[in-house]
Design goal:
five-stranded parallel sheet; single chain; Rossmann fold; alpha/beta; three-stranded antiparallel sheet
Length: 224
């Protein structure tokens, strides 16, 4: 199963450990955190937009950044082929927050690592729905698997409440024919939060195993 990934370390690390998955863009790994970034990256790969190199450091991780500086044309051409030759596109849905500069969405985590005065904004529900539908339209004839972020109401962590909003919106958009949704929050039916999560965003060692097994089983259902 050939896949192209848009998302954070959580989804990358999980999918890298599923043996029937072949990650097409594995040598071009860069972590992204918003659906607007994904849409933007598709346009960049298709050479519909250009990006000022002064913004690279706020958008891309080191390996990708270096490859981009070294040979942008080669990077775009390779990613274009990988995107189009993939059986499935996998997109992690995790946040409403975004940072905008020069009509571009920057990467939240990369921006946090460098001094700046960027304003953190947030999508409302309507904009998020539009962004998701835009992503789907940019990938005609492609099967897309959206993977949500974990949410457990019982732990009472207010800042993760938006994950429930995002998960519910995505669940209502997919058609289960060409677009699919996997909700890893379902693992909390049989597991406790502290067994899965070491903080609000990252998995414990045991949590990684449980999440991987759940996502693997759900992907098998989709492709069967």
């Amino acid at each position: 199963m050939k896949v192209f990934i848009f998302g954070s370390c959580r989804v990358w690390n999980t999918l890298e450990n599923i043996n029937f998955i072949e990650i097409q863009n594995k040598n071009y790994r860069t972590l992204m955190h918003s659906i607007g970034q994904y849409n933007q990256e598709i346009d960049f790969i298709n050479k519909k937009i250009d990006i000022n190199p002064e913004n690279y450091e706020y958008m891309y991780y080191s390996n990708y950044y270096n490859l981009l500086i070294e040979n942008k044309e080669n990077l775009q051409n390779n990613l274009f082929d990988f995107l189009n030759n993939s059986d499935y596109i996998i997109a992690e849905m995790q946040t409403l927050k975004f940072i905008e500069k020069d009509n571009l969405e920057l990467d939240m985590v990369q921006c946090q690592r460098k001094p700046n005065n960027f304003e953190i904004k947030a999508y409302n529900k309507t904009i998020l729905i539009n962004k998701i539908n835009e992503f789907i339209k940019k990938l005609p004839n492609k099967k897309i698997i959206f993977i949500g972020h974990v949410f457990d109401e019982s732990v009472g962590i207010k800042k993760i409440n938006t994950r429930l909003v995002i998960n519910n919106l995505v669940k209502n958009i997919v058609n289960n024919k060409n677009t699919f949704f996997i909700n890893p929050s379902n693992v909390f039916k049989n597991n406790k939060w502290n067994d899965i999560m070491k903080d609000s965003s990252h998995y414990t060692v045991e949590g990684e195993k449980i999440i991987k097994e759940y996502i693997e089983s759900e992907i098998k259902k989709i492709i069967s």
